[in-house]
Write a structure and sequence with these properties.
- It is a single chain.
- This protein has 15 helices and 19 strands.
- The chain has about 500 residues and is of the alpha/beta class.
- It has two domains: about 240 residues, Rossmann fold; about 220 residues, Rossmann fold, CATH 3.40.50.300.
- The strands form four sheets. The protein has a six-stranded mixed β-sheet with strand order 6-7-8-3-9-10, with helices on both faces. The chain has a six-stranded mixed β-sheet with strand order 15-16-17-13-18-19, with helices on both faces. The protein has a four-stranded antiparallel β-sheet with strand order 2-1-4-5, covered by helices on one side.
- α15 links the parallel β16 and β17.
- The longest helix is centred in the middle third of the chain and has 16 residues.
- It is globular.
């Protein structure tokens, strides 16, 4: 049997008074693959951070954590993070949250020291390795660009290159395929398979069983901070094939209006109207000659490969970008409206927004920030806003998150709070960038039900997704965006 890299024996983890892991025991061995599955909030990300040495076991744990290295066993994580590398949404979010404006080459180079900024210039051997992994992952053309300019999927591939550059003993992947288009996802998983075949151990947390590559032999199932079972990949996937699909959960309806499939406003009014719009980012045309309109109550989707300009399009509609050429009219505010004027009237859910909300606050405060459209509470909320936030949290069935500290929440739980933040002000339009990323299958069905009810009450919607099964059911018009241009529209039945 291969020798272990890290072992957990009856370990607990607590943060801000919350028990995140309880009595967890698991071993990671050299060259082996392990998948970690379970619903949102079950403790998967916390387990990965514990394995990598980012978190300490609680002192009252019945057992202990041991790292196994060349010098023998140790409870100390010193030196471990250079041997165990990570690709995760939170790691990617840090660049956005802290505005780390680094060229891609420097981001990959920083992997050799596991620091946000590379401490030194690359040695000849490191330069060669950077070129090798950049070519392997198709990011060589991006080496001179800023990590902050890239699409979500492009940046994810850069972070995989960063993780692979130091030739780690263990590669830790936390929902690493989120934000990747179908082709990039297939290529990413092929790289994971190759890493395992070459003898690097891999631990992968995922909500999608089809991402568990064949080279991963073991699957750990988590629930409520505990490992409830471990089984082979074959047995786990076979059990899924035999299981009956769970019924989709739904929000508790509080609507007093009659759902309708037609806009309640006059036919001549539009939520958004774009005419020959070109948007430049750092002098580069990210959107080109884009023209379309969104009617009140209409639900649209935009699809396309990583780097096509989808997220930029949503930022344009939200007033965070302005056209270099052409015009864009938002709501009834004309062609010069900016993001502050749209606050409270447009609800936004996006990975970038989620990245900026990792701060010292509670779930309720995050939801309340949606009324002013700010990061944090710039002004004290009114009592009516507090009541609306409480009602929305209860309606969505996530009232238990109201007083939780954001840093104790899973990525999926935080995504649910962002949805509540977008919906609480009862916006006229919803702009959703990969709204189901980081959610398990049941939570994805739950979000789609929430969105269906919001749209039945009259909200318009424009969603971006790389998964056909993640488009809201009311979407009838789908635009394909490639290289900044909408090349065609498709009508769904």
């Amino acid at each position: 049997m291969p020798t272990p890299l890290v072992t957990l024996d009856r370990v607990d983890v607590r943060l801000s008074g919350a028990v995140l892991l309880a009595g967890v025991s698991v071993a990671i061995r050299r060259g082996e693959g392990l998948a970690v599955v379970g619903p949102s909030g079950s403790g998967k990300s916390t387990l990965l951070r514990l394995l990598r040495g980012e978190l300490w076991p609680h002192p009252a744990s019945a057992g202990r954590r041991l790292f196994h290295g060349p010098e023998g066993e140790s409870e100390s994580p010193i030196g471990v993070r250079e041997r165990f590398t990570l690709v995760a949404p939170e790691a990617q979010d840090a660049y956005v949250r802290h505005d780390w404006d680094l060229p891609v080459e420097a981001v990959i180079r920083s992997g050799f020291s596991d620091a946000p900024y590379p401490a030194e210039r690359a040695t000849p051997a490191q330069r060669a390795r950077i070129g090798e992994v950049a070519a392997l992952l198709g990011v060589a053309p991006l080496l001179g660009r800023s990590i902050l300019e890239l699409s979500r999927g492009e940046a994810r591939r850069v972070l995989l290159a960063r993780a692979l550059a130091p030739d780690p003993e263990l590669l830790v992947l936390d929902e690493a395929c989120d934000g990747l288009d179908a082709r990039a996802r297939e290529a990413f998983l092929a790289h994971v398979s190759e890493v395992l075949r070459r003898g690097t151990a891999v631990v992968m947390a995922t909500h999608r069983p089809d991402e568990i590559v064949p080279e991963i032999a073991r699957v750990v199932v988590m629930e409520a901070g505990r490992v409830v079972r471990e089984e082979s990949r074959t047995a786990f996937l076979g059990g899924l094939d035999c299981a009956a699909p769970a019924p989709a959960p739904a929000p508790t309806s509080t609507s007093t209006s009659t759902p309708t499939s037609t806009p309640t406003a006059t036919p001549t009014r539009t939520l958004f109207s774009l005419s020959d719009v070109t948007v430049l980012v750092e002098g580069r045309a990210v959107l080109r000659d884009v023209t379309f309109t969104v009617a009140p109550g209409e639900q649209l989707a935009i699809v396309g490969p990583n780097g096509a300009g989808k997220s930029t399009l949503l930022r344009l509609l939200a007033g965070e970008e302005q056209p270099a050429r052409g015009t864009v009219a938002r709501l009834d505010l004309g062609t010069r409206a900016s993001a502050p004027e749209l606050r409270g009237r447009i609800g936004v859910v996006s990975p970038e927004l989620q990245a900026r909300h990792r701060f010292d606050a509670t779930g309720e405060e995050l939801v309340l920030s949606g009324f002013a459209g700010t990061i944090g509470l710039a002004v004290p909320p009114s009592e009516s806003e507090r009541e609306a936030a409480r009602v929305e949290l209860a309606r969505l069935g996530i009232g238990s998150l109201a007083h939780r500290h954001l840093l104790t929440l899973s990525y999926g739980e935080l995504r649910k709070l962002l949805l509540a933040r977008a919906l609480a002000p009862r916006p006229e339009a919803l702009l959703l960038d990969e709204p189901l990323a980081g959610l398990d299958a049941g939570s994805r069905a739950w979000v789609l039900a929430v969105l269906a009810e919001a749209c039945a009450d009259g909200a318009g919607l424009l969603a971006v997704s790389h998964h056909a099964d993640e488009l809201p059911p009311g979407v009838r018009r789908v635009g394909l965006l490639e290289e900044g241009r909408i090349i065609r529209w498709t009508l769904r039945p």
